[in-house]
Amino acid sequence: MFHLIGFEQNLETLILLAKPYAGHKNIYDLNSLKKAYFRFLKKIQPNVPLPQKSTLEFVSNPELIAKLIKLFMVDTELNDIENIMNSGNASYAKKALNNIQQSYQRLLERNPSFGSLFNLVVNMIFCAQSKMAGGGTTSAAIGVIWSDHRPHWQNQDFIEFFIHETSHTLLFLDEYRYQHYRDLKQVAKPENYTPSAILQKNRPLDKVLHSLIVATEILLARSTWLGEPSTCQLHPPTSILLPQTRNALSSLQNASLPNKLLTERAHYLLETIQQKIAPLEHPLQTTIEGPQQRAL
Amino acid sequence: MEKINDMILEISEKITSEEERSCQKNVEAVSEQHTDSHGCLGPLRMAAFDRKN
Description:
The complex is a heterodimer. Chain A is an alpha/beta fold. Chain A has helices at about 1-5, 5-20, 30-45, 60-75, 90-110, 110-120, 155-180, 185, 205-225, 240-255, 255-260, 265-275, and strands at about 55-60, 125, 135-140, 145, 195, 200-205. In chain A, helix 2 (about 5-20) runs parallel beside helix 6, helix 2 crosses helix 7 and helix 5 (about 90-110) crosses helix 7 (about 155-180). The longest helix of chain A has 24 residues, at about 155-180. Chain B has two helices and one strand, in the order ααβ. The longest helix of chain B is centred in the middle third of the chain and has 18 residues, at about 15-35. Chains A and B meet through helix 2, helix 3, strand 3, helix 7 and helix 9 of A and helix 1, helix 2 and strand 1 of B.
């Protein structure tokens, strides 16, 4: 979403969602925005804890981790892949948190503009083990990122992980502002599944839309400031990811019923994806350390 | 920091009450969609699955 529609549009969404919770002083700076955003989140997800301070919290408290795991373990008809998480393990969590904290610092150095948006919308990161995934997000706990980064991940995988999970978070917020799906019951039906951009499996429409956004964000980040990774662990190389994304997009656009389940806003996002990936070619130039981005 | 604060103030001031109303309506609709009374749909969960899966 950061690369697809830009910093300002995402900021506008956040302000619009938070504005009713700003009190009489309105939203006038980062601090007032973050406070109002916290109140918005408390309203839509009252059971989700918020950090003690307004800065990003790397969660090490085992009780809090257990509470967050429960929020991520809720299985519903929209989850085509179940039991993604194992359990909390305090000693693992501590070590894993150190790695993710260091990677977070590298992200801020590599792209301060993206880092500013990340710091605004993401409130907590916690680590918990999984046999299937390197992390995730849920609309039940917007602003919380779960990580189980793999030992073989390189620096760029970590940065792509942050881009990946931030894209989900920004898309959840965009959905609250505009609505993306006309009927979630229809979205959950297997006959309405279409291929996803990253896993390339037939999946529910919400997963497909999210996968298209994430894949596009990774492709645009690589083509503008991140460069092509020398080895790809988390996401496929551009030579694979780009055709997969084009295939997932055209499959969705050609599927008449799933297409009708999306709102005008979701269609606008799909059209923007089409425009943004049209000029991309593969392979991109491999860059280990790309240029720094200007801070906002 | 100063530039982002200026952006926030500028965006905040230009938001119309109609935009706010429309957004609030959508927030209510999405909240309802995500927590439907049958409890069968619930939240949308996204995971960064390992590529081998």
